[in-house]
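Class, study these two lines:
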Amino acid sequence: MSAQIGIRIPETASDHRAGYKVGQRYDTGLLSFVLRSDEAAAYTGRLIREGTRMSGNLHPEEQGYRPAAAFQHLGLPEPETFVRGLRRTSMCPDDLETPEGKYLQRCIDLFTHEYTPGTTRIYIRSTIEPSVTPPPSTAAKPVP
């Protein structure tokens, strides 16, 4: 899934989880992994365009929230339900010339959740047009 979306996963990441949901109109790719919080900040800093700030979850969804493609199917809570420690942004590959963004193949919603001090889970959700579903799968290159 990381190759399909164009997200390189750092070698130090743990607890990798991925899923793909075929929908009636759009398909959705899900990807998640865990990093130390300092590594997560450095990683997202290489992905997000300079000057872009991730926002907090000002309007969290209630427990039991079920988006069309749920992280619950990967054994994870939905990031939209977190009140504390969540940051979020969205981006597309168009003209994204950041060190990690240049690999991005699809638009994504990016969430980071520091669920314990010093430990952050990265959540990525990507909507994929059925005309290109599923793209060929290849091994992702680790982030140096």
Residues 2-132 form one domain. Residues 26 and 130 are 6 Å apart (CA to CA).
